[in-house]
Amino acid sequence: MTDLKPARILAVETSCDETACAIIENGRALLSSVVASQMEIHARYGGVFPEVASRQHVLSITPVVEQALSQAHLTLKDIDALAVTQGPGLAGSLVVGMNMAKGLAVGSGLPLIGVNHLEGHLYSAWVHDAAEPAPAEPQFPLMALLVSGGHTELNLMTDHLTYRRLGSTLDDAAGEAFDKVARLLELGYPGGPSVQKAAEEGDPHRFKFPRAWLEGSWDFSFSGLKTSVLYEVRELKKKSTTLPVADLAASFQQAIIDVLFKKTMNAAREFNAREILVAGGVSANRPLRQTFRSQTDFPVHIPPLALCTDNAAMIASAGYHRYALGHVSDLNIDIQPTWPLS
User: How many domains does the chain have?
Assistant: First the structure.
């Protein structure tokens, strides 16, 4: 692993509906983290309303940055570099964060680093509260499962910023499937937490929903599972006015977990990984976390719950590693919707 120089990074994240700013020292020690959530605003729409999200970012971004600096008892003079999410995400939301970061860079003269949102999720596993002892740092080669609302993929990390994508979703991502099944079962928004809550009282073995193993590849597919739940619900409604929501949620959730866990474990063994990393919004799912922590001999790194969903701490950590390894952007950086594996 490459030795990295010390630095303090301030990062801004506005890829979707969270306005966030954080400051990290040396890629791990979290000095401050502020997140202004819009969840209650978008709950009335059953999902994120892009125009509303971007307007809320405009209102929140300056107070959030100021609060992050205040919490850390720092000023911009104490910062070595700035990081900002380039994408993927909602274009209108990303523009707000990008413009804020560019303005800070112009005003302070600090270097600016563009960070991919998905890379940020992976680096959330390096972050810890600066007031607490540092946990063991993830060791390469890592088998990294990135599982979120828009992405489900396996990446082999052989060093910092060095990735080999092994497989990704062919249709619905795991988080997307959670959202769609939550709507189907008339559960709340966001779908992941509402399905998990409903499943707590359910039987995960009552319904035999399919697992798409896609033998011979490391790809994922959850569209068939979602459709199977739809057909089951239709049949149940023909027979009864009351759906067994808890059992449906538990059986669906277990099908997702089985595939994510088994494919990750098989890939870790196939590619001789030393450890496993699980990150992204779906990594907040309690049964998924318990499965990875209790059913494998591999050391497993899963971020704390506050760092599973969108936040700027993960962008600051990824930004630190890019800055320390010389990957500095310029003020002409723009939205980058793709996921660079290099």
Answer: 2
Q: Cα–Cα distance between 147 and 292 in angstroms, integer?
A: 13
280: phi > 0 → left, psi -120 to 50 → alpha, else beta; which?
left
Whole-number Cα distances in Å, 306 to 33, 174, 270, 303: 10, 19, 31, 8
Chain centroid to Cα 168, Å, comes to: 15
* Tokens describing residue 324: 């320390």
pLDDT band at 342 (very low <50, low <70, confident <90, very high): very low
- Evaluate the omega torsion of the peptide bond into residue 244 and state whether it is cis, within 30 degrees of 0: no
| d(C-alpha 32, C-alpha 125), whole Å | 16
State which H helix or E strand residue 114 sits in: strand 112-116
- pLDDT tens-digit profile of 58-109? 999 999 999 999 999 999 999 999 999 998 999 999 999 999 999 999 999 9
CATH code of the domain in which 88 resides: 3.30.420.40
Phi-psi region of 203 (alpha: psi -120 to 50; beta: other; left: phi over 0): beta
The C-alpha atoms of residue 226 and residue 249 are separated, in whole angstroms, by 11
Of the candidates 201, 191, 200, 193, which has an alpha carbon nearest to the alpha carbon of residue 226? 191
Residue 88 lies in a domain: yes
Segment holding 143, helix H or strand E? strand 142-147
Q: Which two tokens stand for residue 284?
A: 């907040």
Question: Does any domain span residue 205?
Answer: yes
d(CA 232, CA 205): 14
For residue 272, count other CB atoms closer than 10 A to its CB: 9
